[in-house]
Design a protein that fits this description.
By secondary structure, the protein is an all-alpha fold. Among the domains are: 67 residues, no CATH class; 52 residues, no CATH class; 286 residues, no CATH class. 72% of the residues lie in helices and 2% in strands. The chain has 26 helices and 3 strands. A 3-stranded antiparallel beta sheet has the order 1-2-3, covered by helices on one side. Helix 10 packs across helix 11, helix 21 packs across helix 22 and helix 22 runs parallel beside helix 24. It is globular and about 100 Å long. The termini are far apart. It is a multi-pass membrane protein.
């Protein structure tokens, strides 16, 4: 407000007062504020005139000294308006130009050199890029399994004929293949059939409603699992593909050490698991954040989930979650379908939890590979556990409710508005999420390895009182789980060792179990190199192997390659007892209204997740041929 007061020699007009008593120069903001207040306050013409003196002065000053500023301001406003109005056009032109430049580069590279590993990687990546673009441009024509399903609509009678015909044809094909290609070469692999039939029978007896079991997803779930295992373990092409994928993951892991060296020093890999393997987890978490930000992960998960739903006849929600668990953990996959939680049936909710227990996330796979687990087998196990988990869950928790609209729902991942707006934000968020996983995993490892040491000491003390030597937790698990490992196809002499590994995984974490498995695999390589180079002798000393010529002890001994493969597949899951608390926390926080249902289903889902892993191990034992 402009204040005026009476002077001693008479009242001054506002204009006279302002110039007679000069004050410090006002800023532009102050002058504009005065103008607004006077105009809104309804002051007299004199007030308005006086204010205009400052306004005119400011305007004239702008014209005198700020002509270029005004021109630049108008130009900036014009450009901003143009970009805002034609955002879609400019975005399309930018993407089109980028794609054109990329394909020019691709054609040049293919013409320059083709046939090595790098060219194959570039070709596969470009093919995937083209698939993504086509699905974005023609969403209703490509990758639309609902459209295919509608085209394959037949009468109920014809549908039954086709369905049972496919059952019979697939079953006969499997029997023929197993008989001629597997058992004819290695009859001992038939031992794994005992485990498969035993697992199905046990799940049937423990089912919540055996009469309601839909055997269609069960049958096709095991068929898909067998096909993937056969392709990976029986064919050279499949083996090479997953070997190539494993090498890619291991190459990616090397980049994590660059950041670790920069932050922690060049010798940080010798400072323990927390630093050396933590850097891998953080790097892969950041990479997952980027893939999510760009929409690549959502594209793979949704399309793969719809394909799984189309083949197995399961609901889209549980199918998407099952496929998502190949790449992400239980908490991330639950967030993908968070809007559907309130309307899920109990069977779908149980399948979701079972799939979370039966798999490991992509960054955890990288961590387990770093411990020495075979990369190609671990990647295959992560893939084929998805249909196995759905099959087992549909036996234990069959659908007894009318799914209604949720069965026909089209799963859509979170919109771009819910994602980070920058690449750096997505990468940083992924790294922070991975950091929490690292802290959780390392804390559990520290606690449970220490507890296992204490338990072993107590058992040794009690055993020594009774004259029993070597009574440890590993030994007890080896005997208790001996029948299970034998049924999966593990050779008799290796059953106790594999049983102890599974026991450690169940009561501690998969990380602890794979850490020990990695040492045993490394022991076998050392032993093979020792025999090949020196032709020396060796012998067992308890559970260890002693190399006579080099005076070396291989702690925890060795396993056959066949037993290593089965153990790798059978332990590839999140289903350890500490994970029950994590599952309860995740599921109840995502949807608190389903807390009671989650509490009732989590125990059976935990059992189902373990059984699905054991079924995966049995399938691996059936199809793997030792060299």
């Amino acid at each position: 407000m402009v204040e005026t007061k009476d002077g001693q020699n008479g009242d001054l007009l506002p204009s006279e007062h302002l110039f007679a008593n000069p004050k410090p120069a006002r800023s532009v903001d102050e002058i504009q504020e005065i103008t607004i207040v006077v105009e809104k306050g309804g002051k007299d013409d004199a007030d308005g005139e006086d204010i205009n003196i400052y306004k005119d002065k400011h305007t004239n000053n702008d014209k005198a000294t700020g002509g270029w500023a005004g021109y630049v301001d108008r130009l900036e406003e014009t450009v901003r308006t143009c970009l805002t109005t034609h955002t879609q056009i400019f975005t399309s032109l930018t993407k089109g130009l980028a794609l054109l430049l990329y394909f020019i580069y691709f054609i040049y590279c293919m013409n320059y050199r083709f046939g090595d590993g790098g060219s194959i990687t570039l070709l596969v990546g470009t093919a995937f890029l083209v698939l993504v673009i086509l699905c974005k441009l023609f969403p209703d024509r490509l990758c639309c399994f609902e459209r295919i399903s509608s085209l394959l609509t037949f009468s109920p009678r014809r549908r039954r004929v086709i369905r049972y015909g496919l059952y019979v044809a697939s079953f006969l094909a499997l029997i023929t293949y197993v008989g001629l290609k597997v058992l004819a070469r290695n009859p001992k692999n038939a031992q794994s059939l005992l485990g498969l039939f035993g697992i199905v029978l046990m799940c049937f007896l423990l089912s919540k409603k055996p009469s309601k079991i839909n055997w269609h997803p069960v049958f096709w779930g095991f068929v898909i699992q067998f096909l993937f295992a056969a392709i990976t373990l029986q064919t050279e092409t499949g083996h090479d593909i997953f070997r190539w994928l494993g090498d890619m993951v291991q190459d990616l892991m090397e980049y994590s050490f660059i950041g670790g060296t920069f932050v922690l020093g060049k010798n940080f890999r010798r400072m323990g698991i927390a630093l050396s393997y933590g850097s891998i987890m953080i790097f892969f978490g950041s990479l997952m954040g980027l893939l999510t930000h760009w929409g690549i992960l959502q594209f793979i998960v949704v399309k793969g989930g719809r394909a799984l739903s189309f083949i197995l006849g399961t609901g889209p929600v549980e199918s998407v979650v099952a496929f998502a668990n190949i790449f992400v953990g239980m908490s991330q996959s639950a967030l993908l379908v968070r809007p559907y939680f309130p309307t899920m049936s109990k069977s779908e909710l149980g399948a979701l939890i079972t799939c979370g227990f039966a798999s490991v996330s992509g960054d955890m796979v990288a961590l387990l590979i770093s411990f020495g687990a075979p990369a190609n087998h671990l990647l295959t196990a992560a893939v084929i556990s998805a249909p196995a988990a759905l099959a087992i869950s549909k036996i234990l928790m069959p659908e007894t409710e009318e799914m209604g609209s949720i069965a026909k729902a089209s799963i859509v991942t979170e919109e771009a508005s819910e994602k980070f707006q920058t690449i750096l934000g997505a990468a940083a968020d992924g790294a922070l999420v991975a950091m929490r996983i690292v802290v959780n995993a390392m804390t559990n490892m520290l606690a449970f390895v220490s507890l296992l040491g204490l338990i072993d000491a107590i058992l040794l003390w009690f055993g020594d009182r009774a004259g029993v030597q070597g009574l440890t937790f590993d030994l007890i698990c080896g005997y208790v789980l001996f029948p299970l490992t034998f049924a999966m196809g593990v050779p008799y002499e290796d059953c106790s060792t594999v049983g102890s590994l599974i026991g450690i995984k169940l009561f501690a974490t998969p990380v602890v179990g794979y850490a020990k498995l990695g040492k045993i695999i490394n022991n076998r390589m050392i032993l093979e190199d020792y025999v090949r180079s020196t032709n020396g002798t060796w012998h067992w000393e308890g559970s260890d192997v002693f190399l006579d010529d080099s005076n070396t002890t291989l702690v925890n001994g060795v396993l056959s390659e066949h037993a290593e493969v089965i153990a790798t597949y059978a332990m590839c899951s999140f289903s350890a007892f500490p994970a029950i608390g994590i599952a309860l926390g995740v599921m109840t926080s995502v949807c608190p209204v389903r807390r009671n249902d989650v509490m009732k289903l989590v125990g059976l889902a935990f059992f189902g997740g373990n059984v699905a892993s054991f079924a995966t191990g049995a399938v691996a034992g059936l199809t793997h041929i030792s060299k």
